[in-house]
Structures are given as C-alpha cells and as structure tokens.
Write a structure and sequence with these properties.
This protein is α/β, with parallel strands linked by helices. The protein has helices at about 20-30, 65-75, 80-90, 95-100, 115-125; strands spanning about 5-10, 35-40, 80, 110-115, 125-130. It is built from 5 helices and 5 strands, in the order E-H-E-H-E-H-H-E-H-E. The protein has a 5-stranded parallel beta sheet, sandwiched between helices.
C-alpha cells in the first residue's frame, strides 16, 4: 500500500462543533493506517484548540490537550492562523511582546503562522481534508 500525505484543516471550535474532535479522530486513523500528516492547520474558530487557558468540565474531553499530546507524540506540524488567533485572543510569547500584552496563552506544540502554511501544505499533500465550519 502506498503511503499518502495528508493536510488537515480544522475550522470548528473544540466545544461548539464536532469538527475539531472529528479531525483528531481522523488524524489518529491516518497515522494508524501508516500514512503521513504534513500539517494540521487550525483556522477560524479551530484556533481555540491551541488556547492553553481553556478548562472544560471533568466529564468532557479536553480537546486542546488531546490535540497537543497527539501532535507532540507524532511530531506533527500544528499551525494556527495568526489572523484568527489575534482576533480570538490567542498569542505566543513573541506576539505578546509585539502587541504589548502581559502574557501568552498558546499551547506548547502549536505554532502561529500565516495562510502561506496552509497553501504550502495543500500543494504538497496528496489529500486535503477539512473539518467544521
């Protein structure tokens, strides 16, 4: 069987859409089948998965942490859109300094970057799969 290269785009917010969790389950299946994930790109409300300040109730899955652990385990390139992040109050230390904010809240394992990362992944992937809106 030939290994495929996937780019995954997550639009759905972790707790108001099934898209974010469905994307994670799909990514797990892709890896389990021996395929590669070139990049996971979080866009629009999907960037909320990278917010380290979320704290869901104990009886709900912590979707952001699940993504973080999965990404770190498989050394995935997990990129969050900078424009979407800034609109939603999600920043790393560099952006906090640049915008004179007192702290950062981007989860480790995620990287803030621009739409060029989505374009590049789309050009190099065999399949681009999107989740949520």
């Amino acid at each position: 069987m030939t290994s495929l290269k996937f780019a995954i785009v997550v639009y759905g917010a972790p707790y108001s859409s099934e898209g974010c969790l469905s994307a994670l389950q799909f990514a797990e299946a892709v890896i389990a089948e021996g395929h590669d994930i070139l990049r996971v790109f979080f866009y629009h409300d999907g960037v909320y998965a990278a917010n380290s300040l979320t704290n869901p109730p104990q009886d709900e899955p912590d979707i952001g942490t699940l993504w973080q652990e999965f990404g770190l385990e498989y050394d995935l390139d997990m990129v969050v859109c900078i424009a979407s992040c800034l609109r939603r109050g999600i920043i790393d230390a560099k952006e906090a300094t640049r915008h004179e904010k007192s702290s950062a809240n981007l989860r480790p394992g995620f990287t803030i970057s621009g739409l060029g990362q989505l374009v590049e992944a789309s050009l190099n992937a065999d399949r681009v799969v999107t989740f949520g809106h």
